[in-house]
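REQUEST FORM: STRUCTURE PREDICTION
Request ID: SP-0412
Submitted by: Lab K.M.
Chain count: 1
Length (residues): 67
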Amino acid sequence: MLNIEIQSDLINTKGGKKLIKFIKAKYKECFYMAKNNNDDEKRLKALDTMAFLDILILQIKDDSDGE
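STATUS: Completed
RESULT:
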C-alpha cells in the first residue's frame, strides 16, 4: 500500500487539511494508474501529475522547516 506522509503546520488549518487530503488522494490515484495501465499516454500523464504533486509536497515540507 502506498503511504504518503506530509508533516506540516498547514495541516492545522481547515483549508490545509483539505489540500493535503486532496494531494494524497490524487497521488495514490496517479500511482496506481501509472502502475496498472498499459496505455503509454495515460501512464505518462499520471507520471507527469505525480511529478507536479511531488513539487507541491516538497514545497509544503520546506515551508514547515522554515526555509
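NOTES: The chain is about 70% helix and 0% strand.
Reviewed by: T.R.
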